[in-house]
Amino acid sequence: MSLTQGRLVLLCLFTALVFTLPACSRNSAHQADTNGQFTLSVVGTNDIHGAVDATAGRGGLPLLAGYVNALRDLRHADGGEVLLLDGGDMWQGTLESNLGEGAEVVAAFNTMGYAAAAIGNHEFDFGPVGEANAPQSAIDDPRGALKARAAEAAFPLLAANLIDDETGKPVDWPNVRSSVMLNVQGVKIGVVGVVTKGAFITTSAANTGGLTLAPLAPSIIEQAEILRAAGAKLVIVTAHAGGYCQAFDDPRDLSSCRPDAEIFRVAAEIPAGLVNYIIAGHVHKGLAHVVNGIAITSAYSQAVAFGRVDFVIDRKSGDVLSRKIFAPHAVCEAVLGEPAGCVTLQVSGARPSTFEGSNVVADRAVVEVLQPAVVRAKALKSRELGILAETPIRLWDEQESPLGNLFTDAVLASLPAADIAIHNSAGGLRKSLDAGKLTFGELYEVFPFANQVVEFQLGVTDLEKVFSKQLQQRRIQISFSGLSVAAKCGETGLEVAFRRPDGDLLGHDDTVTVATSDFLATGGDGVFTDIIPEQGLTLTEDGSLLRDVVDTYLQQLKAPLQESSYQSTNKPRLRYPGSLPMSCEHLPGDNKPSAATSDQLLIDAAEDVH
Which domains does the chain have, with CATH numbers? Predict the structure, then answer.
């Protein structure tokens, strides 16, 4: 897309804020068809998380834009249209994006011609405008950064189930609404946005006060009925809520899917025929399926793929005549081998990617928009930490998180008074640590959040509740250091015991000092929710960022990193009989809990990246 074409898209999208969207494309005219029909290709993206550039030849916004451009060329040639929508979590996750609190990603979305996007849980992460990721005074707006990005967007942000407690209605912020009506070649297209019911436990509680999340399905139904009554012939939902399937050969075959996924439950509640398509997200998985007659797609994360549904529409009536659901399509700079895998063009034997009859080229206008952010981040990312990882440090192995153990070891080492350090490895860590010389950029990719380290006092009885909750889930969310933990089914049910490194057993009346992140200590991911008093925990903090604490720890190590140093296979930090989730009801005589397979445990451990 040229700069002139980009400005055309911006102009067209700006008019959408009035209420309707005139048909916009990379070119100003369409070739008329002879059948009285046109094809609308709806492209759905989700969980971009600030992915401004490709990694090893895959993903990134400029390359994604190249695929969209190729599809627009095809639709221009046959008189059709492309509609580009996003399912939320747009800008939090990379140094390039985070330094500007997402401004560059919004600018890139504007250039690419997005028509609407859902608000995701991580859109709240930056808090007020400025360095602080949470309000520091009564005058700070906890949603300041989010509102600033919304004001910059040439497309509406959608959140039908995000309720303002003062009004009891969906939030009324500039350029944030429940739904929008678009006009594509004279056909009205309604778009509704919603966010997962768990959004507020996966972002900072300090930034979501005064807001409530309404149930997704009723919110969708209400808005969809309004849109239909106003003449919408097609209703699309951008939902920052998800599910996953492993096979994409047949959209109606759900045998490879997790049937209780949030977005499947939501789709099942919607009256037949009310909604045509849901763009899902949040869990970073793939979907290209039909539930309750509704097409649902999800395209992993970091722009490594995109979803797509083509609708053939009657020009005169606006009725949908047919649809085609596509499997998530990989975003590749080049491909190699059969089946083709993503690589860079520099790889010997690689051939440039093609899509719908066109060569795929990274969009130069998007590259130019993102370039200042790339330059700003480059020097910071390249700083070496002065240590070599001789092996990768995996996020998860068969039993626990070696990388999570490293993080909690680092936190515990920084706070001599702490008895136990706890971190949310499921969700709080984004990828494994690669082997090689470690840089700040690699550490940032592992942990892109601006969470601070805090301490608080906790009775052992409450700590038992924290671990009991973990053990009764399908997977352990947390990693920890300092105490060893053992669980069993006793006469009174599930029993959890703690020992200090010297072997002393903690009593029920003892108190421990817990070190963790401010995110977890204020209710994040639900780890401490059950034991947080109404007035909140009394926290001690010194302003240290968790990432900086780990940075310092790594720089002080005298030997190269080995994953084996952070594995406790032979002497587990957490010991329990059987498999998860533990259940101490109706047990046989050996007190063995009910079992889930180890394969299922690994699937669950990888699912909710959010």
Answer: 3-22+32-128+142-375 (3.60.21.10), 383-607 (3.90.780.10)
